[in-house]
Structures are given as C-alpha cells and as structure tokens.
## 1
Amino acid sequence: MRNYMMGAAVAFCSLLPASHSLAWSGSVLVSTPNTSLLLHANEGEDLRFAFFGDRIEENQIHQIHDAWDGLNRTAYPTFGSPANQLFALQAVHADGNWTTDLTVDQVETTEEDNAKLTAITLKDKAYPFQVKLYYRAYKDIDMIETWSEISHTEKKTVVLKRFDSGHFMIRRGDVWISHLHGSWGDEAGVTTEPLTPGIKLIENVDGARNTHIDHPEVMFSLDGKPQENEGRVIGAALCWSGNYAIRMATDNNFVHRIFAGIDSETAEYNLAPKEVFATPKLALTYSQEGLSGASRNFHRWARHAGMLHNGNRVRDILLNSWEGVYLDVDEEKMSQMMEDIAAMGGELFVMDDGWFGDKYRRVQDNSSLGDWVVDKKKLPNGLENLVRTAQKNGIKFGIWIEPEAVNSKSELFEKHPEWALQAPGRSLIYGRGGTQLLLDVCNPEVQDFIFGVVDNLLTRHPQIAYIKWDANIELRNYGSTYLPRDKQSHIYIDYHRGLEKIMQRIRAKYPDVVIQACASGGGRANYGVMPYFEEFWVSDNTDALQRIYMQWGSSYFYPSNAMAQHISAAPNHQTGRVIPIKFRCDVAMSGRLGLELQPSKMTEEERAQSTQAIKDYKTVREVIQLGNLYRLVSPYDRKGIASLMYTDDAKGKAVFFAYKMDNFVNQVVPRVCLRGLDPLKNYRVRELNVKTGNRPCFLDGKTFSGRLLMNTGIELPLGGDYASCVLELTAE
Ligand code: DGJ
C-alpha cells in the first residue's frame, strides 16, 4: 500500500484562526532539529505510524517508504478494529457497543512560540465519537510531546476502559530497555535488559506517588547493550503523577509496540457527552549519542519548555533540619542551625517536619498533619522570629508541609472526617504513625483547603522562599465522599487533576517560591508534577555511596538543578556506613548541593571541608546546575569507579567528577576519556574541594588539549578508600 503523498503542504480555506492552517491529507512529518516522526494520515483511512528517529526532510519522505517497503502500522489502535490486536483505546459506546473504528478526518497545524503543534482528528465511522491526537515538536529542542483528547456527542455516557496517551513502534533487532526501578531508600536504580518476545509491563499502583518503585520513563537502546555515549536511543517519559502503565509488546511482527498512559485497569472513566478527556503527555526523544545524549535532550526540554518550574535558574545551597534534629524542632536549635549554615556559606535554611500542631502537637509522627499552625511550645515566638533570624544571618528561610495528608489525631480530622479518602462501610487503613490518611484531593473544598495552607503561610510570611512539599502515604482507602456513585472509578485520575489545579493556583500567585517535591524521598520524581516544582528529593537515603547509583539513574531523565543532594552525617543514618567527608561533599556537589545534619555535631574537619565545598561549588554551580551532562563511567558497569561531567554551552568551562566505588590492591581502574569539550581548545585544570590539609592532585594547574582529554583520557587521582575528585576545566 502506498498511502503517502509527496509535495508541498497545501493550505486551504478554513474557518480556523489565521495561526492555524489545514495541512494536506497524506504524510505528516513532525520534526525537531535532529529528529522526525512520520505518520500517514489519509482522509477516511486509519492513521499509520511509519517512523521515529533521525531527522528527514519533506522531500525525503518517500525514501523512508522505499527503504522499508512500506512498513507501517496503525498509529492509535482501538479495540474492535479488529478485536484481535493490542489497543491504545477501548471505549464502550452509549448503546453498549465495545468496538471503535477510527479514521482520519483532518490534520491541523498551529505555530507556537517555540514549537509546531500538529493535531490529527480521528472520527469513528459509525458513532459521533472522536480522538484528537496531538504532536508538539519543539523548534530548538529534540523533544516531541504526544497526547490525545477523547470526546463524543453520543446520547449517554461512553465508558473509557483504556486511554493511552500515545503509541509508537520500534523496529525489532537488538533492542534493549533501561528503566528506573527501586524502593524507598534505593530509588531510581538503573535496570537494563533486552526486549524479548512477550509483553513487558512497567506500572504503578501507589495511587498518590509513582516513582518509588518503577518510574514512568524508559530508554530504548536500538544498537544492542546500552552505552552511555554511543548508539541510537529513543527516550520516553509519561508526564503523569498517578498510576500508569507502559506496555512493551513483542509478538510475531517486525516491531516492538510501545503503549503508554494512565493505568486504566483500576480507573475506567465515564465520559459524558461533550466532555473532553485529555490524556497526559508522552514525551519522546531520540539521540545518536547514547543514553547521555537522550538525557541531555530531556534536561534541555525540562529546563526550557517549562516541564520544570523555573528550570533555567540556579538554586541556593541549603541546610535542611531533618537528619539534624528530626521532629525535635525548637527555636534555639533552629536559630543555631541558621547561624551555622550561614557561617559555612550556605544561603537557605529549611525547617523540616515537627514545627506545627496546637491541640495535638507534632512530637511524634502520629499526629497533627492538617493542623498547620505553629506549635507555640516549640516556637514561642512563631515563624516571625525564625524568619527574622534568617534575615539577620543573611540567608533565606524555608518550611516543610505535607498538605495532602491528615492524621486521625488532628483538629482537621475532627472537623472534617469526610475529607479523608475512605471506602464506605470499611475500616480505615492507616499509614505512617498508625494514624495517617490521605485527603480527598478530588474534592474542590479540599483543594481550596490545601491552596489555603500554602496561601496562609506565604501571605503571613512573605519572606518564606522555599517549601518542601512532602507526601508520605499511598492511596490506601479507595473511596471519595465527594464523587458521585458513577464517578468512584475516577479517583485515581481526579486526585491528580485536583493536585494539578492546586499547583496551578499556587504557581499563579507565587511563581518565585522554590518548591521541592518530596514523597518519602524520591516518590514524586515525575514530569506530571515537575512543571510546578523546582526540584525533588532524590531519596531519604543520604549514604553517599548508594547515592551515586540513585543520582545516576535520576539523571537519565532529570536535570541536575532538579536533584536535591545533601551532605549528611557519618555514620550515615540509613546505612550506618562511615564515609569520609570529602567523598560525601563531592557526591552531593554533582547536583543541587545542600546539607542535612546537625552542624553543632560536625567535627572541625567536617566543617572545614563542607565550607570549602560550598565555596568552590559557588564558583561552578552554573555549569553543574544548568550545563550539559556527560555520564562517562557508570557505577553499574562495576569498573571500580564512577565518573560524570558537565560542560557549558560554549564549551568554555567544564566540571568533572570521579568517585572510587571500591578499593583493592593492584586494582586497575579505567583511564577516563572526557566528553563534550572542544577538541581545538586547551583546558586548564583546577582541583576543587581539595581534601583539607592536602595539596591539590597532580592534574591541578596543568593544561591539556580538548582532543587529548577526549580521545586519550586522563589518569584519575584516586588513591585509597573512598577517594574522589572534582576538577574544573577552563578553556584558555
Ligand atoms: C519524609 C521525607 O522524605 C524526609 O526528608 C522528611 O521530610 C520526613 N518525611 C519528615 O516527616
């Protein structure tokens, strides 16, 4: 079948605004600077997916077709056309018909500021039911966002049983996937495996957070075992904070079929006539520069396309009180901590859990969530005094909240027990502290309450510059007292739509307050919430050795200024491991640097080294936080070291990190070749965060050509246990 058309786009008269133009029926080429996605959209036929990969031009469309002998597949398969295929959409129509048969109705394109939006309307052959598929291609970023909008004008509700955001195909071959898998304290571990026949399903059923175990993102390496800097890679990220399913099906066909969307197994959606159901975005990228190349595309998109709030701003260096005092917050300790972090050169202090509660005071983790008033016994002079102390010390002030949750031991629960999610006739299933519940964020009154928590804090204390927004409980009680009977199946969806509404209100009023997404650590590192948050807490596990693995995995999809990384105490509170302070600093410095310990318990050496780390970090933080990441030697490859680096866009400055992962006599570790430099430039090396009392390493002060650094490589100054180094490279 030769169902493509060649030639120039024909704009013909339409009733659409001037910024729209109806494109021609035929081939639809969606392109970014270096990638293209090719669809065949012939009016009255089903939409076909032909290709996603290296960029092609309009006049080369026929070459793809000729080279592949017309290999293409239905782009958005539906149940029933035919019934024996995997599908992206399943709808039960108002008359009970389970089948849907969509064909192309029209193609529209809209020019946006930095992107081109293509919308393809598919209509059912027999029912007033339609799906609009969107493809947004960025003009200066290699990212395509795709999603669907489902609507109808049937006489009654249509039941959506599956509603994927997108579907695409990858030619079978030696295709491998890398995805992030873990647990509390071990988030974002990289799991790598070949795509073999059968169905591989990555899903989440937590209900409220979705990245503790598996992330809604996958990398596909098309040329065999994944390499950090070589080979073709397709990256996919589902921008959703709730339950999801990513299905990868390999049957007796030539292709792997990838389906991604909200998990519909537990969330069928009753769609009223004229209501529009919009699925979350699925972001797709392609790179010929290995996993690191695909990551750089995600980072650029996150920072510049608004997928990370204030994504292109550098972040402050902070001290968080949690591991320093836990719930034992009081005015004296907070004030002392502020003085200490200011003296070390820090810029922000964040008071964590433990500051609130009146009738029920937050002295243990089993009460007070919901009662967002200051505990006057702990803080007799209120937040006002803390904010003043911060100002006196020349630093900013931040605060912890967990506004989606409530304890049964709270004034809020006494007043509004119906605001907690609950199943009728069932006993409540509690979480943390034996009393914690989740509020019904589907309910607009609850949304107003949560917005009010933030609004009250920020109107009363406009000096608050940072909020740590925690979420320590899954959705355990399935039932909403607000939603009607026929919408109880919407809870997993409406919860997250409610959360989005709250965040949109907060962001409209408070665009500049930095907000961290925390969820018992890294449970909310997803592009569903990141458009409203500046950063996420990578993990509650602050052990520097294990952090190298978690930060490595997180960086597959998230830029470094979104990754909160803190220097903590030794022995580490989660693993008990004793790691030298320089190594702890060097690991935290590779992302958004902070501290999380009690400064008054630091040794002289720890204080001196951390002060040095903060000082040096300030001189290079722009390159680290906003630069281009090259992962060089993976800790997962077990070569005894891990190494990564950042460069600025002009290739004038770079920051290099290396860590010794284990230590043996006669251990041969790799000589490391750097990346992303200009081969024709010469770079002068300066060692940063030199170990207190030591002389800088042998590389310090030397100059090397970019070519030598990249093609020949450097030996690492990593002698001994837990050795590490941070080098600044400056073009001369
Ligand atoms: C879980 C978070 O991940 C921790 O950092 C801390 O904020 C606690 N919650 C406080 O309860």
## 2
Amino acid sequence: MFRFLFLFYSIVIIAGCAVKAQEDSAQNKVEELLAQMTLEEKIGQMNQYSSFYDVTGPAPGAGYQKDRYEHVKNGLVGSMLNVRGAEQVRKMQEVAVENSRLGIPLIFGFDVIHGFKTTMPVPIAEAASWDMDAVEQSARIAAVEASAAGLNWTFAPMVDICRDARWGRLMEGAGEDPFLGSAVAAARVKGFQGDNLAAPNTIAACTKHFAAYGFAEAGKDYNTADIGLSTLYNVVLPPFKATVDAGVQTFMNSFNELNGIPATGDVFLQRDILKGEWGFNGFIVSDWGSITEMLYHGFASDGKHASEIAANAGSDMDMESHLYLKHLKELVDEGKVDNEHIDDAVKRILTVKHNLGLFDDPYKYCDVTREKNVTMSKEHLDASLDIAKKSIVLLKNENNMLPLSKSGKKIAVIGQLADNKNSPLGNWRLAADDNTAVSVIEGLGEYGNEISHAQGVKFFEGQEAFIHELKINNEDESGIPEAVELAKSSDVVILVLGEHGYMTGEGRSRAHIDLPGKQQKLMEEVYAANSNVVLVLMNGRPLDLDWANGNIPAIVEAWHLGTQSGHAIAQVLYGDYNPSGKLPMTFPKNGGQIPIYYNYKNTGRPGPSGLVFWSHYIDETNMPLYPFGHGLSYTTYKYSDLQVNVDSLSGVVNVSVEVANTGDMDGDEVVQLYIRDKVASVTRPVRELKGFEKVTISAGSSKTIKFKLTKDQLGFYNNQGKFVTEPGQFDVMVGWSSKDGVVSNFTLGDNFQF
Ligand code: NOJ
C-alpha cells in the first residue's frame, strides 16, 4: 500500500512539475519574444484580418486585400480568419513566417460551429441529446477535420443562454438553462482542445459571446441587452465560467451593449470578472467590427476613442475593425493606453500560439495528406449519424403511431424540405460542401415501403448562400392539391415541415415563430385528407406548434441534423433507434408568451385565483406547449422510490431514484434532477436543473440513479456576485421533464458543511 501511495504521489508530483516546466518555458519564450518586439509589432499581434475566402461579416472596402497582404509581410497581423485548407493556410503562414522580421506565426481562426466538412447537428440539436460524451465527440471530430485543413482556432463554443425563440442565433447554443448549458460548453471545449493542445489534431476553443448576447431585447439580433445582476450572475455567466474551468484558451466579446456598456468596451466584464475574478489567462478577441460599432452605440466618438476604450477594457485582439493598427501606437504615445495593457494582451496572444505549438512548427496543421485522409472519413460520418439520432426529440406519439412498420405501406412524403440536401446542414456550416446532407427521402429510401413525394408548397426561394436572405414565399399554394391527392391515396403521410437551415443563425431573427410560408395551410389540408400523419420538423428554434399538437398524432423534432440527417430521421421513424432526446428549450404555445422558460420566478401573485388579479394572460395559458426537458420514447419509464438523505457533516445531499423501463423496447432515458430553494435572500426560481444522467435501461429492467448535491448546486450568486449557500427548505424533483417527476424535500440545517 505504502509503495503504491509513494508511486502515486511521485507520478502526481512529476506530472505537476512537467506542467509547471511547460508553463515556465511558455513564459520564457513569450518574454524573450516580447523583449525583441517594437511597439508596432506588438500592436500587429493584436490585429486580425479576414481572408478572401469567406466573409462572415459586412465586407470591407476596396484596396483591402492588398493592404492586408503587406501587413502580414511586415508583422502587423497576429491572426487571420476564414483562410482554410492545408495548402492555403501554409501559403499564408509562409508570408508571415518567412517575411516578417520576427517570423511570428499567425493563428488561423474559423467558425467551426457544428462539425467541419462532416457536418454535425446544429448545437441546439446536440444539446437536445443531453449526452455529453456525444457532444464532446462531435467537437473532437470537428477539430480533427479543421486542424487538418490548416486551422488551429475555432470561434466556438457559443454559450449564450437564450429564452427567446425569435432570436436566430439560439441554434448555435445550448438553450435556456445554465446548468445544461455549462455542461455542454465544457464538453465542447474538451472536444476541441483535447488533452494536448500542442497535438496537430487539436485546436484552441473560443467561448463567445461575452456577454448576454442571448438576451437581445425582443429576440432581435444585435439588440440591446438590459438585465439585472441576478440574471447576469446566475443565468448568463455560469456557462462562460464553466469553459474557463475547462481550460478554454480564448474568449470573444460581443456586439451587444449590456446595461448601457457595449461588451467590447466593458471593463467590468472583461477585466474585473473574466481576467480578474476568474483568472482567465487566454486572450479576448473582439467580435467582427465590434470596436467600430461602439461609435454607433454612442459610446465612442471616433475610431481612436473606440480603440482606447476597447484596449483599456481588455479586448486583446481587433477582429476586422482595423482600428488598433491605426490608433494604438498614438494612444500609447499620448499615455491614453498603458504600455502594460499592450504587453499583457500580446503575452496572452503569444502564449496561446505557444500552447498550440506554433513556435515549434508553424506548419504543423498544414498536412495535405492528413487533410485528405481524415476529411469526411467513414468514422466521422458514423459519429455524425450517432449524434444526429441522439439529438432527435419525440414530441408526441398518440396511440404509438411510431415507429412505422417497415414494409407493405404506401407512404406519402410531403414538404419542400423532404428532398433537400442543403438545408439539413443548417447555418454556420461554412466548410461543408453544398448539398452533402442525406435527405429525408434518401434516408427513407433505404427501407422497404413504397415512397412518393410531393412538395406541397414551395415556402422558400432565393440563393442558398450564407449572406443572402431566403425569401419566404407567402403566396404560392398551387402545389397543395397535388399533395392532398397523394395523401388520400396513401396509408401514412410523413409531413416534413419547418425552416430552411438559413432561416436561423446570425441576423435571422423572426417576429413570427410559426411555420413559414403556406406550410400551416398545407398541413391542415393534408391532415383533413388523411389523418395518419407524422410531422417531422426541421428547424433551428422552438416553433409555434399549437395546432399541430392538437391534431397531428405523431410529431418528431428533427432540427437541422447535419450530413447524416436523412439516415437519422429514417432510423427513428422505423424504430431502429429509440428516440432519447429532450428539449433544451421551452416551446411556447404562442409567440406572445415569449420569453417563456421553465426556471421562472414565482412572483407575488402566482395564482391561479378566482379573480383576475394574478400573473397571467387573459387570452392564453401560462403553460408552454412542450416544457424544457420534454421528450418521449418508444418505451415507457416508471420513476419511484425517491430517497433524499442530508449528510450535514460532509456537506452532501444524496438523492437516489429507481427508474424502470416498463415497455418492451430498450431505451436511453435522461433522468433530470430539479430543486427549489424555498426561501432565500435573493428569490430563487420555481425549479432549477441541478443534475442529469443519461442511462440505458433495457426493457423490463430498472436502475437506481444516484445524485450528489453539494454547495455548488445548492447555492446561488447574490447581487454582489458572491456565491452563497443558505440553510433552509428545498423541494427536489427527479423526473422525465421539468414538469413531471417524483418529488420530495429536505432541509439544510445550520450545521450543514457549506
Ligand atoms: C460574427 C459572429 O458574431 C461571431 O460569432 C463570428 O465568430 C464572427 N462573426 C466571425 O465569423
């Protein structure tokens, strides 16, 4: 035993020394370089340009490309975004390394948001899997492909909590809950960065958008966020903090202002919280042009002023404002920006480059053979299918209409999206080749039934390019009769409706969250002709499905699932995969209920009351259509025997529950634990997710699921930003959604080890 302990501690000490030695060597290398750099070269490291390939923001003016090239040559650029491909990156890296005075390599950033060429489900869909291994694996594969294409930095994960279905960018995040959001955020960082950032197949992650971008008023992109401290500390910030704890290398700030201060110029967020309190050692990149945008916010008078504010607030790198290069030197000379701030920013940037191993080999990510071998490999496609299946949520399944039988049926597949091979790739899939997704028709074609297709309505048209808006066709219903005829002559109808992939994402906020175009009409007329309808939804946000839920017997939420979309959907429809996804966001009954979320506050008038004077609508219920955490299975589960035991001495509340699979199909169930802190010095929500576990339970058997709650789950941030845990009564619920489960309660006494 002693020998074992000795060995164990020796390994720990040696590993600790190795990490320390690595840190020292990084620091030495960086200090050495810094000592040789001119002020212009330092500022150059803080400058980031986009390339000629993809523009993910408003295009800059003419003459831009030539300047940019010269600046790279002269060591006035620290990073490029949107250059990709092993060969292209190598060429650009050569310009920096071979020509500039100090040969400092560039760091190459790209929006690797959900997969790379092999496209994974959009992040909101992946979050619906509640499967952290799968989420990590998805990011891992994205990193393997992206790093083989020369990249070493992704602008992900996006961890913005969002309660507003109108906001187009919620498809990039993990939904409305900070606990689930934190787990997903950390898993994605681990996936991208792996265990060894210097390995050629790992890339630096970038947590964005710091902060509160998901709270854009009215769900309108880029809009003002104005939220209280309690929401900031308890809802918005936790996923950001989780990524710092997971070792994320970089952060991106945000377009929005928060409580009157544009995030890019916010000292409190960037210097006090992130770099101060949380001890974040990486660097912060601005969002695209967000330093310039402080002029429009009315926070800076001109470009020079904006640069001064941003640099002093801790924005280390200027993405595409072209202002740091222009103004920082003068600002330092005038004493308006401290030399120390510049040195600190440059050290942070160089350290990340060092951590990536770029100083050892600037071309380590530029291996064309590896690029060829790994890109869209069978292994990656299989993993994409695996996570796609896990992301699907069965919303309704009346009379067990699903799964469908595999033969002998005439099936009508109706909807424009059903044979689309581009839309399922979703938005933010810059590296994917167009039309590389498996369509629903193709996926169903692998099975035996007789399949016929009608578009019904053509609800979108226009160029399917990233920067173009799709036109929603609100007029054309000429295809409905054909679809109705087909429905009449079929046994089952699979209606594939929703949003095109480009209807969500940046700049794609919607005022109406219904089915776009004439799809609602199509659905109602098809249903009138044949009520054996399975509705398959492809969308990137919660939609208003009240009519569908009241009428259509089976509803499947299939998001935008990436490359393997059609296969995943077919496997679920035919029961080769038993659906296990759960909603990461509340679906309203009606757009007027937005923002609607499960972890709301009780108010002083929770009702219901016989009088009108309680917190409600007179024309709509307070209930959502589908609550957070909702998702059905082809089997059934029974929860029982909830046990709660408070171990005050160790500061742990032990919770266990029995979950039995009472149906006749094996299944994966997401067991969810919620608490309510009944009375607190800052009011707490009626329910808060504090634990979950996805477990496989075979038909007819049961499992005991155990949770441990410590002060980390039982406490909250007060309005001074201090984490506190208070004695008192708590409710606990363990269940299959945020609405349903088995309940108990416990009390934390003064003797509890907080
Ligand atoms: C703007 C987006 O807000 C951000 O998320 C993205 O990473 C950058 N453009 C770069 O494309």
